[in-house]
Amino acid sequence: MIKVKVEFLGGLDIISNHERQHKLTLPLEEGDATMKDVITYICKDIITDQKDVPVFIEDDTVRPGILVLINDTDWELEDKEEYVVESGDLFTFTSTLHGG
């Protein structure tokens, strides 16, 4: 089991019943889980209304306009979906899109 934290900022918490922080226990072994597994878990178990999945996902990845940080580092520097998850990781998703 892998224990991680997930944060939704910039209004993105709307997809998770207005909860900004989540502590997750992923049912996977350390070394086997990737960021793609975290994204899948979020879509199935955290997003409270499945019609909100397109707010978070587009073309099987986090949609453009959402900044993704892995332990405070841009996920583009950490191999994006292929990042190997470790216990204690912090994943932050921040919407940079604002309505007007």
TrEMBL record:
Its job: Acts as a sulfur carrier required for 2-thiolation of mcm(5)S(2)U at tRNA wobble positions of cytosolic tRNA(Lys), tRNA(Glu) and tRNA(Gln). Serves as sulfur donor in tRNA 2-thiolation reaction by being thiocarboxylated (-COSH) at its C-terminus by the MOCS3 homolog UBA4. The sulfur is then transferred to tRNA to form 2-thiolation of mcm(5)S(2)U. Prior mcm(5) tRNA modification by the elongator complex is required for 2-thiolation. Also acts as a ubiquitin-like protein (UBL) that is covalently conjugated via an isopeptide bond to lysine residues of target proteins such as AHP1.
GO biological process: protein urmylation; tRNA thio-modification; tRNA wobble uridine modification
SUPFAM superfamilies hit by this protein: MoaD/ThiS (SSF54285)
Keyword field: Cytoplasm, Isopeptide bond, tRNA processing, Ubl conjugation pathway
Family named by the database record: Belongs to the URM1 family.
Pathway assigned in UniProt: tRNA modification; 5-methoxycarbonylmethyl-2-thiouridine-tRNA biosynthesis
Protein name (database record): Ubiquitin-related modifier 1
Posttranslational modification: C-terminal thiocarboxylation occurs in 2 steps, it is first acyl-adenylated (-COAMP) via the hesA/moeB/thiF part of UBA4, then thiocarboxylated (-COSH) via the rhodanese domain of UBA4.
Glycyl lysine isopeptide (Gly-Lys) (interchain with K-? in acceptor proteins) crosslink site(s): G100
Organism from which the protein derives: Candida tenuis (strain ATCC 10573 / BCRC 21748 / CBS 615 / JCM 9827 / NBRC 10315 / NRRL Y-1498 / VKM Y-70)
PANTHER family named in the record: RURM1 PROTEIN (PTHR14986)
Top-level taxonomy: Eukaryota, Fungi, Dikarya, Ascomycota, Saccharomycotina
1-thioglycine modified-residue sites: G100
